[in-house]
Amino acid sequence: MAMTDMTVxxxxxxxxxxxxxxxxxxxxxxxxxxxxxxxxxxxGRRAFERGSGNMDLLVSRDSDPMVAVLNGVxxxxxxxxxxxxxxxxxxxxxxxxxxxxxxxxGDSYRGRPILATTPEFxxxxxxxxxxxxxxxxxxxxxxxxxxxxxxVVGAAAAREMGLGVDDMLGAITHGLSQESAHVHDEFxxxxxxxxxxxxxxxxxxxxxxxxxxxxxxxxxRRMAQDSRxxxxxxxxxxxxxxxxxxxxxxxxxxxSSAAAALPMLQSQLRARLNATVDNPSFQIDxxxxxxxxIDQIFLGMAAVVLVSSAIGIMLALYxxxxxxxRQIAVLRVLGCSRGRIFGLVVTESAIIGLVGAVVGVALSLxxxxxxxxxxxxxxxxxxxxxxxxxxxxxxxxxxIALAAIAGGIPALMAYRxxxxxxxxxxx
Length: 427
Prior knowledge:
Blueprint: H1 2-15, H2 17-49, E1 57-60, H3 65-72, E2 83-84, H4 85-92, E3 97-109, E4 112-117, H5 120-123, E5 135-138, E6 149-153, H6 155-161, E7 172-174, E8 183-184, E9 189-195, E10 206-209, H7 210-223, E11 242-243, E12 245-250, H8 261-273, E13 276-278, H9 280-333, H10 338-379, H11 389-406, H12 408-415, H13 419-422
Parallel strand pairs: 4-10, 6-9
Antiparallel strand pairs: 1-12, 1-13, 2-11, 3-4, 3-7, 3-12, 5-9, 6-10, 7-8
Helix pairs in contact: 1-10, 2-9, 2-10, 2-11, 9-10, 9-11, 9-12, 10-11, 10-12
């Protein structure tokens, strides 16, 4: 009898194939949207937590802490206001500071950001806390006081631009836009190392010694006076030693936490520097609280689409009832009870919900792969979205339940179908 029921349901669905497929697609889109939003929220947060790594504070002259983190960690833009080198030395010499790594942003190579820093960026700073930098080839640049300029290339930048150890870079552009008119074509850089994948925005950057950057900008300053001049390391002045940020780690004793010293260090640096000093993790949490509110709106929209698809199922079945009354009357004559007729219609509706939900799960996996690849390519962030079995099952069951409920009204119509009236001769 079960096979007979499924045969009846199958023929009913194929008889109005366009309506069935359209309704299934509507359910699938709603389920996929809901699963993508739920999955990407958690995986997106984990991706953004990569990059700030083991630093406790980011020092910047950006006016807003959120902007400072987006610029200094995720390479959104180049900070406009500089930090003087003596200010950096004061930070590095503070008794509560474990390490202080200077960074300077503002140059690029073929559209990829260049971060000027010191060798401590690779030895002290960890892009993911507990996971030091790894090199797939070569190693970090050495302390630069003249001679050959060296560059270390992030994993994504090396892969996309085909760079390897001993390759020479072309002209470095001043500014993060390739359309910038000013290029530093007086200096050549050789690749000395290629970093392994960290899953952070640093993967799409290139790294040079901060002294190399100082030299390039000192040369720009001197060129304004004499276009034929040659600039060396000895020509760098204090006015040229400007950076845009500092990665700071609080000093701690073995086995102790940085939590106690962090507020004191933060307040002291703010007072002495008149700068933005904040914890990147706090700003990332703040960002996701804002994004979380938007996610709730999108989840609500996905729920509305899911309910709308259930209404679509109800309308599709309701509109088909007039054409199916004779079929239902025949089934009644052949021995089908009213309850069984009711169950056939509700089951058909639930099957549409089930098929739509399964297709939606497949769509969500494809969509998450596309979004993950886009974020990796454009932001250098490794987003690893996963569908938890619990969330997936709850969403599928919700889609089936809504579809079954939606089939209630058409099923009631079928239940009340008159056998005598609908078996009269046609015409």
